[in-house]
Amino acid sequence: MKFHLDVRAILRKAIQLALLRGAEGVGVEHLMECAPDLRSAQTIPERDIPFTAEVFAVLQESAQLADLERSSLVCTSHLKRALNKATGGEPSWSTSSTTKELRDNFLDMTVSPRPIGSALNFSACLGPGLERFSPESSATLSLAWLLRDSDELTGRDLLRALIAISNQLEDRNVHMLLYRLRPANRLVETLQNIGSLERMLPPVFSSECYRVISVALREAGAERPVSNLDLLIGLAECGQELLAAEDISAEEIRRCWAEGG
Q: Are 59 and 27 in contact (CB under 8 A)?
């Protein structure tokens, strides 16, 4: 599912609220109670925190409402209606002015005032190979850099971005492919909810990342651009830790995708 910027801001605030409260997961109550003035109020601890099943049900309901309206994005109106259906109440951010504050605060935390185009220039890392990447996979690289865990881009960052950028309203996407391969695993939920480092520095690739991209270029061949599927296959073939722990191989990914995954 694709979220409107306002909804992404609300989700980010809900994650922060859950972290501040020491919760095991982001629950519906955090979605209901997150406030726009949460930023800078306290030091927010950093750790992996998943969404609960109840939150995923609310997000799925929001996506269905958006689909019924033929909207390409899940908007705050869809999320508000889904939360009302689940709880019978009104979220604290339901006024338009509050939503704007959430969006502005989200942008303050994740985007540098410098233009993203110049900051996220991968030509130094990829050279002429940059031209081989599709708009979709180029967007994945940019998101991976924004959501990275360290000072250089890793396979874990790429995997997180592949999941986060997937459109769950479409039948064929990386998120759903991984879910179908290992439905009982919480890998998707864990990777979806990591915060950014709030740093817009020139990208630097780890050796692992270079190996993944080399495989992805080979997988794409000379006739087509590198896709997100190629990047996922590269991650699997290079033994990315989370995929390897689930014994997800490049061949299994290819087979599932060919079968409509």
A: no
For residue 98, the tally of other CB atoms under 10 A from its CB is: 17
pLDDT digits (tens, 9 = 90+) for 140-182: 888 788 777 778 889 988 888 887 776 554 556 676 777 778 7
Flag whether the pTM goes above 0.70: no
Span 99-132, pLDDT tens digits: 555 555 544 444 333 333 334 678 888 888 888 8
Write down how long the chain is.
261
Higher pLDDT among residues 168 and 235, named by residue: 235
Cross-strand bridge partners of residue 153: 205
Tell me which residue of 213, 210, 197, 209 sits closest to 151, measured CA to CA. Answer: 197
